[in-house]
């Protein structure tokens, strides 16, 4: 996998390079400031980009802006955004254009190497990888919505779906059968007024689109 990394913290940046190259990926470019990000993405058109939200010179949302513009100019560019904290507005803005090939993780997650690499590979394949803490924020930020009608178990299933997990993983995590998971997913879609199919990434994208547009 060809990857572009944008991170202003030199130690973390080099750590990401070492981590990805050790896992067999090719880091084709690195960026340390916001203005460097978009040119690197346009030049190399990587299989995936790992971008920090806040970068010099302003340390506001330079990485996020670059990601949004890059996805406009390179439709479908897989982007995994890293953030120090849960910034709900940034996550929501990132998802506005569709969740395919998008991830939003807290930087602490990078230290969990297997989880981080799995998330990056999911995003590169067109899937979704949202940090559990981000999912919690998205699920709890709205009141008086159809989400309120979900049972605690259905909310657990929905959260794991939004993180990008398949039925088998959800079943293992919740210690239930895949048949039970399939039934819970059906109930979730019914209550949210969404198409009943739970196949592929379409279910995750539909749920995220619903959450993002309420």
Topology:
Layout (H helix, E strand, L loop, with lengths): L1 E5 L3 H13 L3 E6 L2 H11 L3 E5 L9 H12 L5 E5 L4 H8 L6 E5 L6 H12 L3 E3 L1 H9 L11 H12 L3 H8 L3 H15 L9 H11 L2
Parallel strand pairs: 1-2, 1-3, 3-4, 4-5, 5-6
Give an overview in words.
Keywords: DNA-binding, Phosphoprotein, Transcription, Transcription regulation. Residues 2-122 form the Response regulatory domain. It holds the Pfam family Response_reg. The protein is of the alpha/beta class and 214 residues long. It has helices at 10-22, 34-44, 62-73, 88-95, 113-124, 132-140, 152-163, 167-174, 178-192, 202-212, and strands at 2-6, 26-31, 48-52, 79-83, 102-106, 128-130. Strands 2-1-3-4-5-6 form a six-stranded parallel sheet, sandwiched between helices. Helix 2 runs parallel beside helix 3, helix 6 (132-140) packs across helix 7 and helix 7 crosses helix 9. The longest helix has 15 residues, at 178-192. It is globular and about 45 Å long.
Provide the descriptors you would attach to this structure in a database record.
single chain; 214 residues; alpha/beta; six-stranded parallel sheet; 6 strands; 52% helix; DNA-binding NarL/FixJ family response regulator; DNA binding; Sig_transdc_resp-reg_C-effctor
């Amino acid at each position: 996998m060809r990857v572009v990394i944008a991170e202003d913290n030199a130690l973390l940046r080099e750590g990401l390079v070492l981590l990805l190259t050790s896992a067999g990926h090719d880091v084709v470019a690195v960026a340390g400031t916001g203005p460097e990000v978009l040119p690197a993405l346009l030049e190399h058109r990587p299989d995936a980009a790992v971008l920090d939200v806040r970068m010099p010179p302003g340390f506001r949302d330079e990485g996020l802006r670059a990601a949004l513009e890059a996805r406009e100019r390179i439709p479908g560019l897989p982007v995994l955004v890293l953030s120090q904290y849960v910034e709900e507005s940034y996550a929501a803005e990132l998802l506005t254009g569709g969740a395919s090939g998008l991830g939003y993780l807290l930087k602490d997650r990078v230290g969990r190497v297997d989880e981080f690499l799995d998330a990056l590979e999911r995003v590169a394949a067109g899937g979704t990888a949202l940090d559990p803490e981000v999912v919690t924020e998205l699920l709890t930020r709205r009141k008086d919505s159809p989400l309120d009608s979900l049972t605690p178990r259905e909310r657990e299933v929905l959260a794991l779906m939004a993180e990008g997990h398949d039925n088998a993983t959800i079943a293992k995590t919740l210690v239930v059968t895949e048949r039970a998971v399939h039934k819970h997913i059906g109930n979730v879609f019914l209550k949210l007024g969404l198409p009943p199919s739970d196949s592929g990434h379409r279910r995750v994208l539909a749920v995220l689109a619903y959450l993002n547009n309420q």
